[in-house]
């Protein structure tokens, strides 16, 4: 590609960013960027270079500026990675191959997962849009954005590229609800035993969507009340107790089950027929592998009236996000909302922890 063509592409990208992202008044610093250099130092040529796709908000409006500090890696006062923490063992820095401004974050591939992270305060129950751009160079694994609970390794949400080798800047985005007052955003490059490539990240934004925060219809959804029977019930005989192994607040619910235990903790919630709701929270297991899932049933007529089950998770020693969305049929005005692990061949004895449950009307 001729330099002039590249200048045109970069100018187009800059125009798109200034129009769409709306939070950068700068153009590319110093005019046209030089062609990106590979690991060997030689310029990289891309077979099908094209203007970068603009990330849409799908007709929705951001209600905030970028909540991430230094999402374009321009830094200040000689600290290009200001606001970001490079996790021990990760090789990362800024390099002049950026989309927005002149620099991008570069993370080297290594035998362990390479991680650069930042913790952000959020509003519980609000919805957020995490987006940015990734370019890869000679990598063997993937490069991705990950959202998780600070201090807990379980992945809540992730989005990224599985592309190997060299790829031009590509948009990455995901939408999520905040179940915690703060989350950790990680920019990661997958572990690769023999990998020596790099992934570049730039124009990373976390935006709150301009939607009211719906009320949580569950009571004691975080199990902070000292007794389990505060709003929750169970059918079968199995042990439940408050646990200090919490991811939301200071307490969670711990259930100890046998392989043949039908773990079914529930509470009743009044609902509006025809309305769509999201039920979500966090779970972890120790032993007790088997399908842990969320389930709702008609409170008066039982499963014959209405039943919906979310996607199960089979096992997770770390807190992970569990969620399902459903529409209440006509004739159903109350639901039994279940946290479940049914008995069966796939189910084993052990412990299951639940924390931070929330049910709200949603338009998604
Ligand atoms: Ca809690």
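Sequence proposed for the structure above (364 residues):
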């Amino acid at each position: 590609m001729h330099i002039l063509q590249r200048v045109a592409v970069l100018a187009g990208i800059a125009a798109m960013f200034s129009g769409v992202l709306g939070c950068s008044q700068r153009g590319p610093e110093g005019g046209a960027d030089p062609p990106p250099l590979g690991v060997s130092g030689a310029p990289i040529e891309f077979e099908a270079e094209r203007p970068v796709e603009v990330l849409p908000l799908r007709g929705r409006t951001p209600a905030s500026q970028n909540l991430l500090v230094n999402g374009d890696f321009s830094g200040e006062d000689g600290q290009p990675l200001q606001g970001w923490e490079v996790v021990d063992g990760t090789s990362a820095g800024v390099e002049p191959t950026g989309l927005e401004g002149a620099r991008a974050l570069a993370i080297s591939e290594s035998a362990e997962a390479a991680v650069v992270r930042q913790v952000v305060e959020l509003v519980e129950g609000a919805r957020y849009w995490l987006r940015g751009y990734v370019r890869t160079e000679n990598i063997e694994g993937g490069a991705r954005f990950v959202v998780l609970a600070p201090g807990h390794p379980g992945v809540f949400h992730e989005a990224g590229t599985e592309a190997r080798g060299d790829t031009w800047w590509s948009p990455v985005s995901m939408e999520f609800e905040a179940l915690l007052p703060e989350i950790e955003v990680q920019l990661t490059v997958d572990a690769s035993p023999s990998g020596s490539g790099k992934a570049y990240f730039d124009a990373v934004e976390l935006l709150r969507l301009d939607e009211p925060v719906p009320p949580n219809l569950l009571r004691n959804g975080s199990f902070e009340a000292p007794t389990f029977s505060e709003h929750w019930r169970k059918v079968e005989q199995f042990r439940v107790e408050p646990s200090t192994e919490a991811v939301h607040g200071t307490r969670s619910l711990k259930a100890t089950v046998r392989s043949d235990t039908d773990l079914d903790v529930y509470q009743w919630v009044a609902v509006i027929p025809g309305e769509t709701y999201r039920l979500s929270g966090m779970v972890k297991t120790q032993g007790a592998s088997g399908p842990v899932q969320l389930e709702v049933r008609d409170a008066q007529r039982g499963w014959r009236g209405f039943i919906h089950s979310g996607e199960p998770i089979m096992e997770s020693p770390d807190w992970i996000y569990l969620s399902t969305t459903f529409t209440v049929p006509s004739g159903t005005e109350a639901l039994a909302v279940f946290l479940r692990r049914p008995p069966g061949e796939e189910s084993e004895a052990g412990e299951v922890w639940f924390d931070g449950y929330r049910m709200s009307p949603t338009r998604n």
